[in-house]
């Protein structure tokens, strides 16, 4: 795989039809999703434009306070990444400008003010959460080209013209179409030495929108205590940022990948990658992960040996463990991006397949064996110790073991007053506590619980209808969970009390 000399047009969108202004003072990269200084097509595009115009480059990374689920947890994780980016851009000639909004709405006008002096603005093309709305609104206001660049997956989101209903069909499409896209990757290292430095920011910017200082970037969360975010959801005990992400990747490859295929579903085995939070905030790139695996496998794209059968193994021409992990990283992860890129209602009950909506509605009034409120779910106050352990892991660690995340959702469906209520509870708990919440892949998992990407299953059951059924009894029979339950059975034993869990 070789680094890109230019960014493929299929990954670029001119959002407002604007032109590049040759008399501008600099190029602006508005970093909102792909929060890293390497392996980043959007940054590469900004550097490319700045180089072609012989202009300086400003990288503005923003963190807003008006996100519905903004908390100390998500803010700290993003700010860890900002600290890494500050180090990465230091001495490069690129002006890195980290902006943490001190109050909701305080950042209003910043993009327009910087764009007024820019040759062009580049940003990240992200299909979920509030980002499509934000960049669409900005496109209407900016006097210069706003270009969104897709840097999130191995397959460009717009290489597909439709939504895939099954992972099998999407995998078969990947096996037909992905190989040519693997030959063009983002740059592994930041290329900036040829860019002129910026002499000064436009007047008034630094005073009106002061950048995040070293104390905040280096971990003083008390400086964010006045920011109007949820302070009852504390930071997780692991760090965010590209450096922590790369350490997590190397640890997975060194210690867990070999047993990933056989043991990843067993919570007691601890064989999962731990990469999801870093992939969500793009502190680690899917291209980077593939490159690391390829180096260990002595593999290149020419080694792809399988035909487009839609099978989950054999196509890559790698070891079985590597192929098993790549099926999760590429097929299942990018399937979620496919849905969000083409369906604006990706987070709505109405987006479910017709058969799933019909069977759920048919059983909406069935008697539930247990009924719990959002607060009871949140506080892990159910009768089921395995479910409670999974919820405790989510609240404390910001993630749930991959397999148990499916059971977690199925039982919320089983114990909520309606499928619509279950959906709202899953979204609320996941987006509030999971570090990787609000992600296309998160919505894939939540909606899979309700039938997305699945088929009808018999026999027809109460509450579930023809939706795939899961139970804690069967899970405990199939998987090793004894140590998992012991570890996560009590929040106080993990150093966290129930006080302040829900506002």
Structure description:
- The protein is α/β, with parallel strands linked by helices.
- The chain has 3 domains: 1-151, Rossmann fold (3-Layer(aba) Sandwich); 242-342, Serine Threonine Protein Phosphatase 5, Tetratricopeptide repeat (Alpha Horseshoe); 349-494, DNA Cyclobutane Dipyrimidine Photolyase, subunit A, domain 3.
- 41% of the residues lie in helices and 7% in strands.
- It has 20 helices and 8 strands.
- The strands form 2 sheets. It has a 6-stranded mixed beta sheet with strand order 2-7-6-3-4-5, sandwiched between helices.
- α4 links the parallel β6 and β7 (146-149).
- The longest helix has 23 residues, at 320-342.
- The chain is globular, with a radius of gyration of 23 Å.
- The termini are far apart.
- The model is unreliable at 1-5 and 497-503 (pLDDT under 50).
């Amino acid at each position: 795989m070789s680094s890109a000399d230019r960014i493929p047009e299929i990954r670029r969108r001119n959002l407002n039809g604007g032109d590049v202004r040759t008399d501008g003072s600099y190029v602006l990269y508005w970093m909102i999703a792909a929060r890293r200084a390497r392996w980043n097509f959007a940054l590469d595009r900004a550097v490319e434009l700045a180089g072609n115009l012989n202009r300086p480059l400003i990288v503005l990374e923003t963190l807003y306070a008006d996100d519905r689920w903004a908390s100390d947890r998500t803010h700290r994780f993003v700010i860890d990444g900002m600290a890494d980016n500050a180090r990465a851009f230091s001495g490069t000639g690129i002006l890195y400008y980290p902006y943490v909004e001190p109050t909701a709405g305080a950042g209003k006008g910043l993009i327009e003010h910087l764009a007024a002096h820019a040759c062009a603005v580049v940003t990240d093309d992200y299909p979920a959460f509030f980002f499509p709305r934000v960049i669409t609104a900005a496109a209407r206001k900016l006097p210069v080209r706003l270009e969104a660049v897709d840097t999130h997956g191995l397959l460009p989101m717009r290489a597909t013209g439709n939504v895939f209903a099954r992972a099998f069909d999407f995998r078969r499409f990947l096996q037909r179409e992905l190989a040519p896209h693997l030959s063009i990757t983002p740059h592994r290292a930041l290329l900036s030495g040829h860019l002129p430095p910026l002499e000064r920011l436009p007047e008034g910017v630094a005073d009106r929108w002061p950048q995040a200082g070293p104390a905040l970037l280096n971990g003083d969360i008390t400086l964010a205590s006045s920011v109007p975010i949820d302070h009852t959801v504390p930071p997780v005990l692991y760090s965010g940022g590209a450096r922590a992400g790369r350490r997590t990747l190397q640890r997975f490859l060194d210690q867990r990948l070999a047993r990933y295929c056989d043991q990843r579903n067993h919570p007691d085995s601890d064989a999962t990658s731990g990469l999801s939070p870093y992939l969500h905030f793009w502190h680690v790139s899917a291209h980077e992960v593939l490159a690391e695996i390829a180096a260990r496998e002595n593999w290149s794209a020419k080694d792809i040996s399988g035909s487009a059968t839609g099978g989950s193994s054999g196509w890559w021409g790698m070891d079985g463990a590597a192929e098993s992990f790549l099926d999760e990283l590429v097929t299942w992860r990018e399937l979620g991006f496919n849905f969000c890129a083409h369906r604006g209602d990706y987070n709505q009950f109405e987006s479910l397949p017709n058969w799933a909506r019909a069977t759920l509605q048919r059983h909406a009034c069935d008697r539930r064996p247990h009924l719990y409120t959002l607060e009871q779910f949140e506080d892990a106050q159910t009768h089921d110790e395995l479910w409670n352990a999974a919820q405790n892991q989510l609240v404390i660690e910001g993630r749930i073991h991959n397999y148990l995340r499916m059971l977690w959702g199925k039982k919320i469906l089983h114990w909520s007053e309606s499928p619509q209520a279950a959906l709202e509870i899953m979204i609320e708990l996941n987006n509030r506590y999971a570090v990787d919440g609000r992600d296309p892949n998160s919505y894939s998992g939540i909606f899979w619980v309700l039938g997305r990407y699945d088929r009808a299953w018999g026999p027809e059951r109460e509450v579930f209808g023809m939706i795939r059924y899961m139970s804690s009894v069967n899970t405990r029979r199939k998987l090793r969970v004894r140590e998992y339950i012991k570890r996560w059975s009590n929040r106080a034993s993990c150093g966290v009390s129930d006080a302040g869990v829900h506002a």
